[in-house]
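JOB MANIFEST
job_type = single_chain_structure
chain_count = 1
residues = 319
[input]
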Amino acid sequence: MSSTEPQPAATRLEGTVLLVGPGWLGNVVAAHLAARGATVAVLQRTPRPSSGDFMALSGDIASAARGPEPLAALQTVVQRALPAPIDHLVVCIAPSRARGDDYGVYPPGAAGAAALANALGIRSVLYVSSTGVYDRHDGSEVTEQSRIEPREARVAALYEAEQHIASIADDHEATVHIVRAAGLYGPQRDPATRLADPAFAAGDVWCNFSWRDDVVSAITHLLLHDRAPGVRVFNCADGTPLRSSEIALTLTGRAISTPTAGSAERATSDRAAPVRRGRSNQRVNVDALLATGWRPVAPTVYDGLRLLGHQVPPAPVAP
């Protein structure tokens, strides 16, 4: 993903990018955008050395929403490194296990990103959110138009963060993308052991996955090809929802007892399946993102597992 080979003009991303949250996803996004020709700086709370791909800046994005003085201080950090106008702000906030973070980091981080974008006049902002914001537990399909009704603090935090980011479009007629990713996995996050665990199959819920580099390519694709002002939300997943029972059967050859697909019993199980706290039971529709021309390289979780080096047998054919 960090190849520095010359890119065709149609795939080059000219200009300057400030990326907030260079973690497991953000680091790869930053390297990928730099490889596409952008000047990239990353902002995170913990100081780190710069790399050959991007500049490293130290600062707490949440501080930008705490008042004029903290905002001015963060502006100074950014503008010293990037004196020219910033073309794109990409926000990949994620809780830090080392710091003991939880979902509470999302709203203040997003509010700070909005404040900084407004102060610097950034006209293109992309925020990585989660399909967990839909919080469905009945096996239903969710699209970008599905209603969101936060019933717990985690979902409320995700939704509040999105609202902070969406407000940027009102203030500066900016192009704002909210990318709701599902079930991120990839290098250093190999889900094979978890997926083969009988506990994962319990409840027989619908599961949705995103190969990390497919999310990276979606971010790049939207920055390159979707520049009209306004807020647009895109679900980002492989586009192949699978039941946990099917995944278990494919990976282990061991079936779990579930009602027959299409039967009244199966419909009842969609609504009544026991789902652990924080685990969704929904089918994520990605037609809107596909309509922009983006395509995943891992269209099923099985393809992603093969990319990770696993020998995955073909999925059993339903009778």
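[summary]
The chain has a mean pLDDT of 87.
DSSP finds eleven helices and 13 strands in the chain.
exit_status = 0
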